[in-house]
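Section 5.1 Outputs to date
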Amino acid sequence: MSHTAHIRSHRKPRSRTASTIAMRAGVAGGILSTVAVAGASAAANAAEPVTQTLELPTLTADLSAQVAQSAEATQLAAANYQLQAERDAAAAAAAKEAAKDLAAAKKAEARKKAAEEARLAAAERASRDSQRTTLAAAADTGSGSGSVSTSTSTSASTATGSAAAVIDFVRAQVGDAYVSGGTGPNSWDCSGLVQAAFRQVGIDLPRVSQDQSTAGTQVSLDNLQPGDILYWGGAGSAYHVAVYVGGGMFVGAQNPSTGVVEKPLSYDPPSGAVRVL
């Protein structure tokens, strides 16, 4: 054999002491024990049911707050309805009071108008009385052409033709009301009646008494004929007109108190007369 030949080592194998073996066995046993315990614990946990408990203290408090808010909102709505009802009642009362005030104002205006018409009628009567006094004085002093005679030469004459138609019309309106500005058919003022009467025979007279007093030929009050237009006041400034119907009588829309009447000339002596027929 060569002297270089491999010679097996004669080193002694390491001896494992009992303590080392025991420790390793202990470690292994501990690990296995831990694994066994963990597995058992997992199995036990898997076998037990899971129970959860939910507590709702916050939800209950929120619900109470919502209920309180709802009750408050209901009370507020009821208060608003009550306030609106009170406002509506107040508005209705105010409207009713306004209607009463309007009615009272209309009544007051009607009374004022009636008083004004009465005043105008009184002024008209006073003016006629003054004219009557003047004419009577003139008659007493024998002033001739300005005097009024109820026994004129034509007082007994009978109207014919157009004059008869005019007279028939005005007499048919006797009893109608006097209304300022009235032109018929059931209410008249003085010039409205005269204008309508002469329209029956195709004569178109001016609308107002001032113009009607100059519409024809001036005639003497001592020479009146049926159908002549009588006027009170001055020619061109007359404040009243009527129609002479013969027999010392005239028909005219006098005033709101009397309406349309037939009266003798002595009742209200005229100032003058014009003839258009």
